[in-house]
Specification:
By secondary structure, this protein is an alpha/beta fold. The chain folds into 3 domains: 43 residues, no CATH class; 44 residues, no CATH class; 99 residues, Ribonuclease H-like superfamily/Ribonuclease H (Nucleotidyltransferase, domain 5, 2-Layer Sandwich), CATH 3.30.420. The strands form 2 sheets. Strands 5-4-3-6-7 form a 5-stranded mixed sheet, with helices on one face. The longest helix has 16 residues. The two termini are 44 Å apart.
C-alpha cells in the first residue's frame, strides 16, 4: 500500500503490517531487508487432500479402494475430499469449433489473415529465422515474407499492401491476426486509422479464430 510519505507491506488475510518504508528525497521507497521483522505464515492442508495430491489427484473412490485393501501403509479411511482447485482447472473443457461453417469473404481483399512464425532454430540461406504469412480469404492465395527480426513485420506489410492493392485495384478492408506485439504497435494502429482498415484480433490462446492462416 502506498501513501504520501511511506509504503507498507502487509498480509491482507491476517492483517499484520510486515514492514513500513518511508519515502526518500528522490521519491523512492528503499527497502532494507535486514530491518524487516520476522513473521511466519502457516499453510495448512487436510490429511485427505494431502493423499489426494500425493497420488496425482486420484479421486476419492481410488483412495478409498487403496485404504480398504490395505495397499498403502498409513493411509486414512477416506470418504470424501475437500475442494481441489487443480482438479477444477484440469477438467475444464470447451466446445469444438464448427467445421466448414466459417464466413468466407465475397470480394478480393475484403478479409486478409496474417501470422508470424518463429524463431526457427535453423536459419534460412539468407539468415532469416522468421516468416510472415499473409492469406487472402477470398482466393486463399498466400504470400510469404522471410524476416530476420519481428520488427520487420510492419515494413513488409506496407509493401504487401501497396503491391496487392495496385494489382487487384481493390483495397484491404479487414486484417485479422493474433495479439502478438508485432501487430499491436502504434505504427500499425496509425496505418489502419489512416486507411480505414478494420482491425481484428483473435482471443488469446485461440488460434482457431485465425485458422485460415494457421
Amino acid at each position: 500500500m502506498f501513501d504520501i510519505s511511506f509504503s507498507s507491506i502487509y498480509d491482507k488475510n491476517s492483517g499484520p503490517n510486515l514492514v513500513s518504508i518511508p519515502m526518500a528525497q528522490n521519491r523512492m521507497f528503499p527497502l532494507e531487508v535486514s530491518g524487516i521483522k520476522d513473521h511466519a505464515l502457516v499453510a495448512k492442508m487436510s490429511e485427505s487432500n494431502l493423499w489426494h495430491l500425493r497420488y496425482g489427484h486420484l479421486n476419492v473412490k481410488g483412495l478409498k479402494l487403496l485404504g480398504d485393501k490395505n495397499m498403502v501403509v498409513g493411509l486414512l479411511k477416506l470418504n470424501s475430499l475437500d475442494f481441489c482447485e487443480g482438479c477444477v482447472y484440469g477438467k475444464q473443457s470447451r466446445n469444438s469449433f464448427p467445421v466448414n461453417k466459417g464466413w468466407r469473404a465475397p470480394n478480393c481483399l475484403e478479409a486478409v489473415y496474417a501470422d508470424v512464425c518463429g524463431p526457427i532454430s535453423v536459419e534460412s540461406l539468407g539468415g532469416s529465422r522468421y516468416f510472415f504469412l499473409i492469406t487472402n480469404d477470398y482466393s486463399r492465395m498466400g504470400w510469404v515474407h522471410f524476416l530476420k527480426f519481428k520488427s520487420e513485420v510492419f515494413e513488409n506489410f506496407k509493401r504487401f499492401k501497396a503491391l496487392v492493392e495496385k494489382q487487384s485495384r481493390c483495397s484491404i478492408v479487414a486484417l485479422r491476426s493474433d495479439r502478438g506485439a508485432e501487430f499491436a504497435s502504434n505504427e500499425f494502429a496509425a496505418l489502419f486509422e489512416k486507411n480505414g482498415i478494420h482491425r481484428e484480433m483473435t482471443t488469446p490462446y485461440t488460434p482457431e479464430q485465425n485458422g485460415v492462416v494457421e
